[in-house]
Amino acid sequence: MTNSVSEVSKSDVLFVTGSNTTENHPVIGSMMKRAVQDGAKLIVADPREIELAKYADVYLQIKPGTSIALANGLMHVILEEGLEDKDFIEKRTEDFDEVKEIVKEYTPEKVAEICDVNAEDVRKAARIFGEAERAAIYYCMGITQHSTGTESVMSISNLAMMTGNIGREGTGVNPLRGQNNVQGACDMGGLPNVYPGYQPVTVPEIAKKFEDAWGVELSKEAGLTLPEMMDNALRKDLKAMYIMGENPMVSDPDTAHIKKAIENLEFLVVQDIFLTETAELADVVLPAAAFAEKDGTFVNTERRVQRIRKAINPPGEAKYDWEIFVDLMNRLGYEEKLQSAEEIMEEISKVTPQYGGIDYQRIDGNGLQWPCPTKTHEGTKFLHGEKFARGLGLFKGIHYKPSAEVTDDEYPFIMTTGRVLYQYHTRTMTGKTEGLNNLMPESFIEINPVTAEQKNISDGDMIKVASRRGEIKVKAKVTDTIAEGVVFIPFHWAEGAANILTSGAVLDPYSKIPELKVSAVAIEKA
Question: What domain count does the chain have?
Fold first, then answer.
């Protein structure tokens, strides 16, 4: 997030797109509802009529995969009505003319046709956003998990810069992280192209810094993303894999493809707290300690580094994650004598500029938000206050492109996926909780009443859902929260798994994320 969670209450306008915030981030969702009650305006763009839509001044039930067209349409109206922040654009950005030229053709009428919404609603949303003193954008995987996901983020960044809604309290472009400590994992180099602190592996002087710190020679080439790893495993170009705290047999697209890839490996190690569907396929399972069984830090969605403290001892042979890694490194010939999570944080602060001023003593209370480069720095509440990290903010002119997979006579419906409040990710933990399973025991498919009537489907019927990858059976939930021609299946369950249907074949060219949010499917009563 460019800004902080507490700033929800400082915004005049909240624009929530591709995020079912009250179910996926319920604390932030409750803050948004309170902000609306206190007078903030709310714009919601989502294929499902999520809870926040009931609080919205404008709700845009867009067709999945059309976020770029909507952003361009909002910018078209803002420019047409002179609501852009000319001073901000002139002093703090570049290449604005590229965007200005492209959005000319995205009239509300054209956008309404692409997105399947009302043109007047597009105009109303643009005016609300453009006239605001402080407007903030919040998004999640409904924006990013597309073949054009990165360009969707660029488009909403264009919207924020065009209106001067970045670099100030109560504004910003705010991605809501999908899992606990995803932010921390990325910060620590859990990406194939960067070292900790988003320092590129391809820059020689950066690589040398880490070589000197670690006393080893490092590759100067970026590694593979998870979808690329699976493709390489399928071709037997990748022979071994070490999976930690991840369950791709349920969470990744095209489950049949994932299973074949994993079974093609010569050696698989899984490090986890439970025997997941993926761990069941492993040659070696390393039992790890859960969050309450270890010391360390988590980094939350607002870049806040927070301490966690061991409450109970790990059961059985389970060890701290760092203990497992250090033991393995030593057995492989790399001498490392770390004794605690605190020592690791000390190393992090030495090699990661954003963490330079962070240590256990300083984060003992409420933590600190990076960038925090020195021991006297108080942390950073919002980013880009005086200038952007690159100097001038770069506008990128982006045209709307249809999703990679389109419907046809055989597969006439668009399926999108997401989470529900009472289960989490692949149910590794929530699936073992009786109360949560009573509330949300099984997978389901949301179907619009008109579609249900056309297909002779009643609420509670078992439905066969098929895509170009496979088929599943799930229970029908007939509801008008989903539009005609669109269906929704949560991805949590291994039985009736949505990801048997999704595709990993077409990736975003920038981030290599698969298009999980749009799949063409057929439905019929089982």
Answer: 4
